[in-house]
Amino acid sequence: MNLISQVLQEKRKNSQCALIPFLTAGYPSVELTIETLCMLDKRGADIIELGIPYSDALADGPLIQRASKVALDNGIYIDQVLDLLSKVESRIDAPIIIFTYYNPILVRGLSRFIREIAQVGVKGLIVPDLPIEEADYVIRLCDDCKIELVLFISPISSKNRINNILSKAPGCVYLVSSTGVTGIRKSINSEVSFLSNHISLKTDKLVMLGFGISSPTQVSHILKSTLDVSGIVIGSAFTKILSNYSNSNASEIIEELGSFCCNIQLVMM
């Protein structure tokens, strides 16, 4: 079992759920990303998802698309993300999952990309537009570098596709809580509870839930529901706080992010 699934399994054994914040690398600056990663680790994030900026991010909503544009305008590409990770690897304990799209990986070279992220301590990889037909090969490359490939399951996926994904997934799966793109929402898709139960009945795969989860109230509702999830991903809410950054208020932004993280943690205990 890879480290990502190990963390989820440990939380599950203790009847808890893992907190998984999402950040866009280099937004609003490399320095603030590093500070935020270290702060989230200290404030109890169990796993941290780090997005590589991309200009055609089809799964991302307006907040994260804007964050990617700002980061790209600041010259943040794969090389800069690798450099960022090399600076933070020894400073945090929470395992990092890289979130990126398939095209930048192919341009870089699949084997090279996986090898490079492993060298800077990355433990997980999410590629939302990875064709399921190519998953086996990518999983083998990831396994060689002790990286867990986390496959996506959507509320609109067919049963056959879901079962195919579950049969291929090396450990945990990412269950998308709403249709469409990421972003702050008031509720999750009604199909998600059915899907969660379907996954639990069919396999022993652990589930991380993401897309549209943005408040302690939502997290509390999920944990009190019949949803069988071992990790919750929150991205747009953290990105919204970071969008208020200016050169003069970095410490206040870090403190606000930390307070939000703690508030989420309180309802997850």
UniProtKB/TrEMBL annotation:
Catalytic residues as annotated in Swiss-Prot or TrEMBL: 49 (proton acceptor), 60 (proton acceptor)
Q: What catalytic activity is recorded?
A: (1S,2R)-1-C-(indol-3-yl)glycerol 3-phosphate + L-serine = D-glyceraldehyde 3-phosphate + L-tryptophan + H2O
UniProt keyword RNA-binding, yes or no: no
Q: Name one GO cellular component term.
A: chloroplast
Location of the protein in the cell: Plastid, Chloroplast
Pathway annotation: Amino-acid biosynthesis; L-tryptophan biosynthesis; L-tryptophan from chorismate: step 5/5
Under the heading PROSITE patterns, the entry gives: TRP_SYNTHASE_ALPHA
Which PANTHER family does the record cross-reference, listed alphabetically?
TRYPTOPHAN SYNTHASE ALPHA CHAIN, CHLOROPLASTIC, TRYPTOPHAN SYNTHASE, ALPHA CHAIN
Q: Describe the task this protein carries out.
A: The alpha subunit is responsible for the aldol cleavage of indoleglycerol phosphate to indole and glyceraldehyde 3-phosphate.
- What interactions and quaternary structure are annotated? Tetramer of two alpha and two beta chains.
The record's HAMAP family line, in alphabetical order, gives: Trp_synth_alpha
What is the name attached to this protein's record?
Tryptophan synthase alpha chain
- Source organism of this protein record: Symphyocladiella dendroidea
